[in-house]
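Recall that a protein's primary structure is simply its ordered list of amino acids. Everything else, from secondary elements to tertiary packing, is in principle encoded there. The following example makes that idea concrete.
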Amino acid sequence: MISVYEEIMLEERRQTRTRLNKCNQIDEDLLCTECGYNLRGLSVENTCPECGMRIGVSRRGIALRFCDPLWLALLTDGARWLAIGCVAQAALIAGVTIGSVLFPGAPAFRVALWITLIPTVLFILHGFDKLTSHNAEEDESLLNIRRLPRIFFFIAGMGTLATTLLTLSPPVRILIRLFIATPFFALSAILLLAYLRKLARRIPHLRLARHTTLFVWSAILMGLLMFLVEGFMQTVGLLRGVPPAPTSTPANLMGTYLLFVAVYAVPQMLFFLACAWLMKRYHKVFSLTLRQARGYEE
């Protein structure tokens, strides 16, 4: 199976178009972009007999600039909204961290927290949905790298809503947060970055793909950190009889809370700010690709 980058370069050399005969059949060697099968002699309306990939996709190339501009517009908007959501999430973490010390248990602080949380969640949801939208021109399997982040993100969201809105015992709340909300959110972020890396290779923008690989590993480390530190904090809060949510900081937990800030809150803020920078880069690259796709349509 040939790599994505090799296929795109091959398309560049043959000017993205292949020769057809009078019967609208491929009149030269053309390899399927999915399995490498030689499609010579087959009609462009058919699919690859080996893997089922549409021949039209292999003929025009898999570079993003040959994709539907409407789908590329969704990717562009998704990167922008997710960048905004990442900045808002970093600001929210900073607000919770500082407010828990300066305004412990204050009703106004709780109200401000919810007012900030709702738009942040909406920004991230909107961007996530657009970035993982389906390209109607491409066939895909039931479970793939585009759909899995959506599934995991939904599971994480349901777990978070359950711990936020339902009246649950502290042990149950801790179990849901540790084994559903936190790990599935981390998995959705890791798979989304892996999906974006795949798109970067189809631009092709190998430098951006390499940077995204670093973010994939950073997300894996951040997920492990979230699981370990949050598990420790939730367990300490349960044993000492305080609510697991960090909306107040009792004096007897100040030392533990400072540890929480140093090894959990600050790395999370930096990670979300770095993700905002990465999404800004994807927004710029997708915007350029979108202009190229509209130019090919014209």
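Residues 11-16, 244-252 have pLDDT under 50 and may be disordered. The chain has two domains: 1-62, 68-297.
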